[in-house]
# Entry
Amino acid sequence: MDPSTSSAITLNINGEKHTLSVDHRTTLLDALRERLDLTGTKKGCDQGQCGACTVLIDGRRAVSCLQLAVAAEEREITTIEGVAEGDRLHPVQQAFLDLDGYQCGYCTPGQICSAVAVLEEHAAGWPSAVTDDVRPEAGPPPLTAEEIRERLSGNLCRCGAYVSIVQAVARAAGTRQEATQGGRTVGTTGTAGITGTAGITGTTEAVA
# Structure
């Protein structure tokens, strides 16, 4: 590679460091897939519109097709390969399996990474565009189906599995809340603290 247009960088991915030489124009997505064989992250539109390439950078969602690899150096990157804890699936992954939150599965890695961040954002009290009370003292809003759809609006499913995706995120949110409360179940099983998610059927409304 031309040293004037390339650099040796070290990427911290899923807790492991990878050193490689990349062209300055190389996206994080292409570095993951083409250089590091981390092909769980999918290339969809390659324009930042579909969310198939979503990864977590320092715990925040990012579309890796618009992120330069050189700009991701010294940051903590989590791809779909690093979401689980060993053989134990993340609650979002388990919920997607249990509730069929996918069809072809192409968008699923991005959906799951985005949903993992959504749960953290919601727990931190971050409002969305559909949150009624955005005052900090109001705390996290009820994680309704409308809230989930809005918060995942950057992730598109070409198969239209939105109903199951919303249900899966709601279940994972309930599992997360139960874990933080020492296993004490609040509300209905699997949807602790979640409202407006029971019996979400008969709609093909996009996650938007």
The first helix runs from residue 28 to 35. Residues 51 and 154 are 6 Å apart (CA to CA).
